[in-house]
Design a protein that fits this description.
Chain A: Keywords: ATP-binding, Nucleotide-binding, Transport. Chain A: Pfam families: ABC_tran. Chain A: GO terms for molecular function: ATP binding; ATP hydrolysis activity; transmembrane transporter activity. The structure holds two protein chains of two kinds. By secondary structure, chain A is α/β, with parallel strands linked by helices. Chain A is built from seven helices and ten strands. Chain A has one domain (about 5-225): P-loop containing nucleotide triphosphate hydrolases (Rossmann fold). In chain A, helix 4 packs across helix 5. Chain A is globular and about 45 Å long. The model of chain A has no long low-confidence stretch (mean pLDDT about 90). Chain B folds into two domains: about 1-55 and about 180-570, no CATH class; about 60-175, no CATH class. In chain B, about 65% of the residues lie in helices and about 10% in strands. Chain B contains 17 helices and twelve strands. Chain B is α+β, with helices and mostly antiparallel strands. The chains are: A alpha/beta, B alpha+beta.
Chain lengths: ~220, ~575
């Protein structure tokens, strides 16, 4: 795992009597796109949550840029999510009360940026993702594909080192899904952002440099594409 | 810090500009807080109105102690009935060195009469009445000499006072020992203040905390984007603050709009004067501050047991059932306040008054505290029944907290109204036939009854508005569940009836508890005052039915929102 930006060693995680992770090790290098595949309930989302510091593993360590996430206080982990990590989920992560532009500007404003500066950066990212026309709309007034691209713009606006995407196209039709994936991976590669892409679809995994398969809480296959 | 506040306010404004349902909800919350604020401001002013009329009453009470260099003013109190109202006044005889009663420029000479503006209006319109007051009108009595603007009062100068009446010899005016507020009245007035304040504050706190599910989702998203836990709390506080400020603005506007129209308004025997209805600036500011602190405090307190994480919000619900022990505290302290009186340990009037006031306040607080526990215990074993009943009971079994709190507020109003009315009826009964019960005291007691009706009506109105907000809010949060029920063929009428049951079950308990508590309070208070209790069941029935109808009405008003929620497109997820 030399040169890994983010590495997990022997992760174990259970929810009550259900074992979600049973000794998973994983690593990703800077700028790499890795697809984490597996059937429903295999533990891939739990792995993503542990890798991003949202969930604490019962056993094992997650190291990001030399820091062990489990040892960081909540404020530090919040800071990481604000500056170094980005997130895109299947649906529901945009704030419906805010316009798309304000949604994208939100992480910058939480970090203390002035509104105008944050919104200028947001406009730029909406343009890069091809959804500049949604800037003044609210998420409920946009299509699913547009919403997801806005979510990608929001995840990338802070220039994160790692983007965590959990079934980002799961709620979209195949054409919209392709567009979102292409925009996301193109833009991330151009900015040197690594992507942990959780999916159960091989057509989605095809956008990755490498794929790992999780089954019953363990990594079964890991291969380069 | 400023950025967090700005984001919170932006979220609140966004909520008000989002979907139509969100707009309806935001407007209702603002109107509800506004209504509560307006009633609170009137309550803050009413304390002065009651006080100022008592002060004016005391100011014209004669001082009987001899004073050097003063020619006493001899006077006889006269009162007569006129078309259901009472005309009262004084026949006076004095000299140049005699004291002048407040509100008149001089002692009327023989054959002269000073009348109150309202009596002057009556005299001008009724020749028969004019014939009874033979004197020449020397002028009008100014407000400082009248208990209220509607009082029918006169000072008539005479040569000779009637022999068959008690003649009072006044050396001055302004005897604070007479005409002032009695202990019973003090208890009533403080009771009324608590009655008004407590439930309104409960409503404001409930309404301020509404929208929890949506707020939780928003806050979880913010956490995912890197907001720290304190940042999330600041954002939530700012968000609730925006609604509270809008509500305050509406409340202040309502207060001033109604204030201008209140001048001369007659309620029973009491006529309002706008000049009396101006709370001092500090009390005005205090009401606004309390409301702000309450709304923000309720949100922050509600978040205390909540852990907002990036993926979800978890609540530390503690024990699976509400605990009874601490809920008994207010009721127990109510009894504790009465103990020293029952054991004959205190004798001073003001101590007794204070203890009884504290006991009343504690007992009233006990109602909304005990009601959620009672409702939860009562619905826990319920099963079966019609689908609407079953849906309602299951919902209450999952969460009866918020409806119980609002209904608890209504129950407080009921208890206080029933208790207050019983005390008034009993005190009036006690004094009936007592020669020393002045006209004014009788007048005031009747004014309190009218006031009680009015205050109950206002607070029930505020309660109804809060309940409507609650219904609309709940339908918004459970939109998917309602749509799913509709999708499997449950008619909206069934869902509507279940909604009605959800509110009627707690109010049923509320009415029961309130009547028992109100009657209990009255019995305890009257025991202290040494009077037998006389229950006014008609009043209790009227306000109880009023409370139930308020609940029904608020639920029915929520039906259009229910029908909108039952549309199947609410099931669409993308």
């Amino acid at each position: 795992m030399t040169g890994a930006l983010l590495a997990a060693v022997e992760l174990h995680k259970s929810f009550g009597s259900t074992r979600a992770l049973a000794g998973v090790s994983f690593s990703i290098a800077a700028g790499e796109v890795v697809a984490v595949m597996g059937p429903s309930g295999s533990g891939k989302s739990t792995l993503l949550h542990c890798l991003s510091g949202i969930l604490a593993p019962d056993e094992g360590t997650v190291t990001y840029d030399g820091h062990e996430l489990g040892r960081l206080p909540d404020a530090q982990r919040s800071l990481l999510r604000r500056t170094d990590f980005g997130f895109v989920f299947q649906f529901g992560q945009l704030v419906p009360e805010l316009t798309c532009l304000e949604n994208v500007a939100l992480p910058l404003r939480l970090a203390g940026a002035k509104r105008k500066i944050a919104e200028l950066a947001a406009v730029e990212w909406l343009e890069r993702l091809g959804v500049a026309d949604t800037a003044r709309k609210r998420p409920p007034d946009t299509s699913g594909g547009q919403s997801q691209r806005v979510a990608v713009a929001r995840a990338l606006v802070t220039g994160p080192k790692v983007l965590f995407a959990d079934e980002p196209t799961g709620a979209l039709d195949s054409l919209s899904g392709e567009r979102v994936l292409k925009a996301m991976t193109d833009v991330a590669r151009a900015s040197g952002t690594a992507i942990v892409l959780v999916t159960h679809e091989s057509r989605v995994a095809a956008y990755a440099d490498r794929e790992v398969v999780v089954r019953d809480g363990r990594i079964r296959v890991s291969e380069w594409q | 810090m400023n950025a967090d506040m700005a984001i919170g306010i932006r979220l609140a404004v966004g909520r008000g500009m989002g979907s139509r349902l969100a707009v309806v909800r935001f407007v209702l919350v603002v109107l509800d807080i506004g209504l509560c604020v307006a009633v609170l401001l009137f309550a803050a002013a009413a304390i002065d109105t009651i006080g100022s009329s008592s002060d004016r009453e005391a100011a014209r009470a004669p001082v009987l102690d001899k004073r050097a260099g003063v020619t006493p003013l001899s006077l006889v109190n006269i009162s007569s009935a006129y078309r259901g109202s009472s005309i009262s006044g004084r026949q006076v005889r004095g000299g140049p060195l005699s004291p002048v009663p407040p509100g008149v420029p001089a002692i009327p000479g023989p054959g002269e009469v000073f009348v109150s503006p309202e009596l002057a209006r009556l005299l001008d319109s009724d020749p028969a009445l004019r014939a009874r007051f033979g004197g020449t009108r020397a002028g009008l009595i100014e407000p400082s000499g009248l208990v209220d603007a509607g009082e029918l009062y006169f000072y008539e100068g005479v040569d000779r006072l009637p022999d068959d009446r008690d003649i009072t010899t006044a050396y001055a005016f302004g005897d604070e020992r007479r005409g002032g507020t009695t202990p019973a009245e003090m208890i009533l007035v403080s009771g009324v203040a608590v009655v008004l304040l407590a439930p309104l504050l409960v409503f404001i706190a409930c309404v301020g905390r509404l929208g929890g599910v949506e707020r939780d989702q928003r806050l979880a998203t913010l956490r995912l984007l890197g907001a720290t836990a304190p940042q999330v709390r600041r954002i939530a506080a700012a968000e609730s603050l925006a609604g509270a400020v809008a509500g305050l603005a509406v409340g202040v506007a309502m207060f001033f709009a109604v204030h201008r129209r209140v001048d001369g308004l007659q309620v029973g025997n009491f006529r309002f004067s706008a000049a009396d209805f101006v709370p001092p600036w500090w009390r005005f500011a205090l009401v606004l501050l309390i409301v702000l602190v309450l709304v923000v405090g309720a949100v922050l307190l509600g978040m205390r047991s909540t852990v907002v994480e990036p993926l979800s919000v978890t609540r530390d619900s503690g024990a699976p059932m509400r605990r009874l022990r601490w809920r008994l505290l207010p009721a127990a302290s109510g009894v504790a306040f009465l103990l020293p009186i029952a054991l004959d340990l205190v004798h001073e009037n003001k101590d007794v008054t204070m203890l009884v006031s504290c006991a009343i306040a504690s007992a009233l607080v006990a109602i909304p505290v005990l009601l959620p526990w009672l409702v939860e215990r009562a619905v826990a074993p319920l099963t079966g029944g019609l689908p609407s009943w079953q849906l309602a009971v299951r919902r209450l079994q999952v969460d009866s907290g918020t409806p119980s709190r609002v209904v608890g507020g209504i129950a407080v109003v009921l208890a206080a109204a029933v208790g207050g009315q019983t005390i008034i009826t009993s005190v009036a009964g006690l004094h009936a036939g007592t020669p020393d019960l002045s006209e004014l005291q009788a007048h005031r007691l009747s004014g309190y009854t009218d006031g009680l009706y009015l205050l109950s009506a206002f607070t029930l109105l505020a309660a109804g508005a809060s309940l409507l907000v609650l219904v609309v809010q709940q339908l918004g949060e459970r939109r998917r569940a309602v749509a799913a029920l509709s999708a499997i063929g449950v008619p909206w009428q069934v869902i509507g009836r279940s909604l009605l049951w959800q509110n009627l079950i707690p109010i049923g308990f509320g009415v029961l508890v309130a009547n028992l508590a109100g009657a209990g309070l009255a019995v305890a208070t009257l025991h202290v005052l040494g009077a037998p209790a006389v229950f006014d069941w008609r009043f209790a029935g009227a306000v109880s039915i009023g409370a139930v109808l308020t609940v029904c009405f608020a639920t029915v008003l929520g039906i259009p929102v229910l029908r909108a929620s039952a549309r199947l497109d609410a099931l669409r997820s993308e």
